[in-house]
Specification:
about 475 residues, Growth Hormone, Chain: A, cell membrane, sugar transport, trehalose transmembrane transporter activity, Facilitated trehalose transporter Tret1, Sugar_transporter_CS
Length: about 475
């Protein structure tokens, strides 16, 4: 796009401010293009959701001689690896994706993530051995890690301040939409047809996102001011004059960040940073220790084991639909009610619902005669669980992470917290089947429920409220200045 074309965006309302020899023209512009880019980039979140939800409809198919595409039925140990390798791939990915995003850009790194998904779905489409499935799941994990690492950078750098919250909240909503997508299709089609349906998502993402711009901040960091200007004009729907002030702000922020880039030691030298790390690592840890990935990955198997009259496929779809509705509610209430009250409600609700789920499996274990009248209890318990999780402990630990650290150590702190998330995710998915077999399903759910009770206590005693505070005010409170 040349300068003549850039000036085609005529202002709706303007005023001019003379400063030395420079003229800054303030324009209304249009948010439509940044919303378009934000929605299209979140097709990558839908890709993530399909990978996270895939095992729920696929495990029963692979475990049945009638529907499995594999030469042999996966053992319990192999099934655990099929589920948990996504977390292992996601753990490794940030250490590749972060430097790559700085090297080739946010846009092309995200496009690269779709390659992992496309190859993985092709491998699953042609799979005849467990090893091939394991390789595919590991590649999906790499794709998940790439998206989770770089997509937040992309959104944060293309969105203007007034729309950053709305665009940032799309990630959780689109992830659970991807989960609902495989929950809804998987039980009713063949194993191969499910892979085709999943393959369509990364292809659609690649085709559409290819035409979206790179972020202005990346171009500034690379010294390519003309490309930054072009990108910003496209995203804001303004002329060159209309984006000069914002371009100046971005340039100052990027240059300051590059000059003051922090180290790992800088993170631990400051007491406020250490406190922030404890809060964020604790919230992310309890997010995983709630057992959410077990429920997402094994929903259909869990409902099959309850023996209720409602079919496992329909029960799983209901849970997926509730996830989407609950995730859509979070952006509407979080800035009104605050982070801490929502997190406390979420932890308490998860604790009670998991305890109730454990009670149902205990009654089933002892063959209680009252079990017949409680067929509704498992689906209601899990609906309550995913509702309070998706409103609170699902999105808010990541939101708090974005607020707690100064810019110079934010990327280091984010990598540590994200790694903690995926390490725990891997361990829980890897050993859940063995724990469930050894202790029984009732104790599995009770243990997760007890940990949610601990999460409530941790949130009440340790987590600080950030509602209405500027980033500097948050730093002052963490460092005991107010």
């Amino acid at each position: 796009m040349n300068p003549a074309e850039l000036n085609q965006y005529q202002p709706v309302a303007t005023f001019e401010k003379h400063e030395s020899t420079h003229i800054y023209r303030m324009e209304k512009g249009s948010p439509s293009r940044q919303f378009m880019a934000g929605i299209i980039v979140n097709l990558a979140s839908v890709m993530v959701g399909t990978a996270l939800g895939w095992t729920s409809p696929s495990s029963p198919k692979m475990a049945s001689q009638d529907t499995t595409p594999l030469d042999t039925i996966p053992s319990v140990s192999e099934s655990s690896w099929i589920a948990s390798l996504v977390a292992m791939g996601a753990l490794i990915a940030p250490f590749i994706a972060g430097p790559m995003a700085d090297w080739i850009g946010r846009k092309y790194t995200l496009l690269g993530s779709s390659v992992f998904f496309i190859v993985s779905w092709i491998l699953l489409l042609t799979a005849s051995t467990v090893v091939q499935v394991l390789v595919a799941r590991f590649l999906q994990g790499l794709g998940v890690g790439f998206v989770m690492t770089v997509q937040t950078m992309y959104i944060g750098e293309i969105a203007s301040s007034e729309y950053r919250g709305a665009l940032g909240s799309l990630m959780q909503l689109c992830i659970v939409t991807g989960i609902l997508y495989v929950y809804s299709i998987g039980p009713y089609v063949s194993f191969a047809a499910l892979q085709w349906a999943c393959l369509a998502i990364p292809i659609a993402f690649s085709v559409t996102f290819f035409f979206m711009p790179e972020t202005p901040a990346y171009y500034i960091a690379k010294g390519e001011k003309e490309k930054a200007l072009e990108s910003l004009c496209f995203l804001r729907g303004k002329t060159v004059d209309g984006v000069q002030e914002e371009l100046h702000e971005i340039t100052t922020t990027v240059e300051e960040s590059l000059k003051n880039k922090g180290t790992l030691m800088d993170l631990f030298r400051n007491s406020g940073n250490v406190k922030a790390l404890i809060i964020c690592s604790g919230l992310i840890s309890f997010q995983q220790l709630s057992g959410i990935n077990v429920i997402l990955f094994y929903s259909q198997n869990i409902f099959e084991s309850t023996g209720t009259s409602l079919s496992p496929a329909v029960s799983t779809i209901l849970v997926g639909a509730v996830q989407v509705l609950a995730s859509g509610a979070t952006p509407l209430i979080v800035d009104r009610l605050g982070r801490k009250p929502i997190l406390l409600t979420s932890a308490g609700g998860m604790c009670i619902s998991l305890g109730t789920m454990g009670l149902y499996f205990f009654l089933k274990h002892i063959e209680s005669p009252s079990l017949g009248s409680l067929g509704w209890l498992p689906i209601m318990s899990l609906i309550v669980f995913v509702t309070v999780y998706c409103i609170g402990f699902g999105p808010l630990p990541w939101a708090v992470l974005g607020e707690m650290f100064p810019a110079n150590v934010k990327s280091i702190a984010s990598s540590i917290v994200a790694s903690n998330c995926w390490v725990l995710g891997f361990i829980i998915l890897q050993f859940f089947a063995d724990m469930d077999k050894a202790l029984g399903s009732h104790w599995s759910f009770w243990i997760f429920g007890i940990l949610c009770g601990v999460a409530f206590a941790f949130t009440f005693t340790t987590v600080m409220e950030t509602k209405g505070l500027s980033l500097q005010e948050i730093q002052d409170r963490l460092n005991g200045k107010v």
